[in-house]
Write a structure and sequence with these properties.
The structure holds two protein chains of two kinds. The model of chain A has no long low-confidence stretch (mean pLDDT 88). A five-stranded mixed sheet of chain A has the order 2-4-5-7-6, covered by helices on one side. In chain A, strands 1-3 form a two-stranded antiparallel ribbon. Chain A is of the alpha+beta class. Chain A folds into two domains: 83 residues, no CATH class; 159 residues, Heat Shock Protein 90, CATH 3.30.565.10. Chain B is α/β, with parallel strands linked by helices. Chain B has a five-stranded parallel sheet with strand order 2-1-3-4-5, with helices on both faces. A four-stranded antiparallel sheet of chain B has the order 6-7-8-9, covered by helices on one side. The model of chain B has no long low-confidence stretch (mean pLDDT 85).
Chain lengths: 339, 222
């Protein structure tokens, strides 16, 4: 609030006052009054008025400045209505009431959407648990009736399972902290689990797996890491080179402050300049737009999002036509190591 | 033969599980009604129970807890939820193992046989005697009256699989699947090399051409 605009607001008052003084002066001219009084009256009125609006300005200015200061400090600015002082002038009182009222209705509105997303998330989770039953049954039927055709259906079922899993983790990705239990895990256990998950495709497509140096312990929640690793391995499978022996190498290195897990393939690689964008939501790139790949641009986006939430670093390097290497960095947590 | 009780409300899945388990050498029993689940389970007196966590009328966890009060029968809890809280809870209620849908069939079998072995009911043996030689499981060797030959880890697993499926054709994929399940991620070439070495070792025992190659289909142990 600057002084100029404050005075501007008072222009009507001031002009009325000046007009009033002028009429008094005209009356006084018609009567035999001493010149002292003629001078004293306008001066005393103007002085007192000036002081009063000066006080008013200082008071209001201080009040609003204070609010601005609080706004600056607050992360969630809408909470300011909760902490501002009770004003001692009426227009601010009215304004505060109005802001509080609109704020309340805004929060209600936000909550409505919060419940809606929560509700939807719950529905998705429930749906995913339901759909697992017919999938289980189908897999059992296939196991009991092994033919070329059912084997092929089994492969398709595995794809369905992977999409379902992606949906589940997507739904959960905003509330990782609610479902996160840290334990000491051997990287070998986690990697083996992921390889086992993909064994049908890996064996069927004759992709060789080379794992070494994995006997390293990290503190993490295996469920999330298995999901992340699974997405990466599936990318290696999807973007393999069809004209030569595909290989996926998985190994780890222990550093002073962290342990790194490397997943390297000899696939088609990523076009130069696109490596940095693969973690963007919906980014499919040159590879993904090839007709047979059907990339959704979700897998790596979700990996990055989850890694960020779990405090794990994720980096990707690639040379087109030679292969891709993804690195997951697990920081040492001294606190848990002590326990 | 050990008797496994399947407590699962999905009829189709239940039937398929029954077929699958009987194919794999187990007797099976199924529960069709769920109005008196706990008593029915106890009356059937089985060697192992596959217990679904979502049952009509009763919570699987509650059922598990009640059975535990009266019996020490091994219980594998089956669920479609996959979070650690559920796992902890069901173990807390006295289940011995926990498996999530859609489950890996080999893992299910492995869990069943390890649980049964622990309660001394399993189809486990120290040695498997085959025509012409004996597969020693604890020492991972093959032997006859005159000789004992050591096998590598992979050779042993391959031979064990062939022995378990004697006189049946097993495809290369099936063998690899079995090996990968036990965390030996060998490739096609390594499998060929291992088969050759196995043949040589069996020949040392005087068993020629006991593993036959069926072109385009796989191998068969005669």
């Amino acid at each position: 609030m600057n002084f100029k605009s404050f005075i501007k607001d008072k222009i009507l008052q001031i002009s009325f006052l000046l007009f009033g003084i002028a009429t008094i002066e005209i009356f006084l001219l018609a009567y035999p009054v001493g010149s002292f009084i003629k001078i004293y009256i306008p001066i005393i009125i103007l002085t007192l008025y000036s002081i009063s609006i000066l006080i008013e300005y200082l008071q209001k200015n201080m009040y609003y400045k204070n609010i601005y200061k609080m706004l600056e400090k607050l992360q969630e600015k809408y909470l300011v209505t909760e902490i501002i002082d009770k004003p001692n002038f009426s227009d601010a009182k009215v304004l505060k009431e109005i802001i509080q009222e609109t704020n309340k209705s805004m929060i209600e509105n936000v909550n409505k959407y919060k419940y809606m997303t929560e509700d939807y998330k719950e529905y998705i989770e429930m749906w995913i648990h339901e759909i697992k039953i017919p999938i289980s049954t189908s897999k059992m039927i296939i196991e009991n009736n092994k033919t070329e055709a059912t084997k092929s259906i089994d492969e398709e079922l595995e794809k369905i399972e992977n999409y379902i899993e992606q949906a589940l983790f997507y739904a959960r990705s905003n509330t990782v902290e609610k479902d996160y239990y840290i334990k000491k895990w051997n990287l070998k256990e986690i990697v083996n689990e992921v390889i086992r998950k993909n064994k049908t495709v890996l064996i069927g497509e004759k992709i060789s797996i080379n794992t070494h140096n994995l006997d390293i312990y990290v503190n993490t929640d295996s469920k999330w890491i298995i999901f992340i690793l699974n997405q990466i391995v599936q990318n290696s499978i999807k973007y393999r080179k069809l004209d030569k022996q595909s290989e996926i190498e998985i190994y780890a290195k222990k550093g002073k402050e962290n342990a790194s897990l490397y997943i390297r393939d000899n696939g088609i690689g990523i076009k130069k300049g696109e490596e940095t964008r693969v973690f963007e939501k919906g980014f499919t790139g040159t590879n993904g737009r090839k007709s047979n790949k059907k990339s959704t641009g979700i897998g790596l986006y979700l990996c990055k999002k989850l890694c960020d939430k779990l405090g794990i670093g994720i980096e990707l390097e690639s040379v087109q036509d030679e292969g891709t290497e993804v690195k997951l960095i697990f920081p040492n947590s001294s606190y848990i190591d002590m326990m | 033969m050990p008797k496994i009780l399947i407590v699962e409300d999905d009829e189709k899945l239940r039937n398929e599980l029954e077929i699958f388990l009987s194919h794999n050498g187990y007797l099976t029993e199924i529960l069709k009604k769920f109005d008196n689940t706990i008593q029915d389970i106890l009356n059937l007196d089985s060697d192992l129970i596959l217990l679904d966590i979502n049952l009509p009328g009763a919570d699987g966890e509650f059922v598990c807890k009640e059975i535990r009060k009266q019996s020490n029968v091994p219980i594998i809890m089956v669920t479609s939820r996959d979070n650690e809280i559920d796992e902890l809870l069901s173990l807390n209620y006295g289940a011995d193992q926990y498996i999530t849908k859609p489950f890996n069939i080999q893992i299910l079998l492995a869990k069943i046989s390890s649980l049964l072995r622990r309660t001394k009911m399993g189809i486990s043996q120290e040695k498997i005697v085959v025509q012409g030689f004996t597969l020693n499981i604890s020492k991972s060797t093959i032997e006859n009256e005159y000789k004992e030959i050591e096998l590598t880890k992979n050779e042993f697993k391959i031979l064990k699989y062939l022995v378990e499926h004697q006189n049946k054709i097993v495809s290369r994929e099936e063998i690899m699947d079995y090996l990968w399940e036990s965390e030996s991620f060998i490739d096609d070439n390594t499998l060929s090399v291992n088969i050759t070495r196995l043949r040589n070792k069996l020949e040392e025992l005087g068993l020629k051409e006991i593993i036959e190659t069926k072109r385009g289909q796989g191998y068969i142990l005669k």
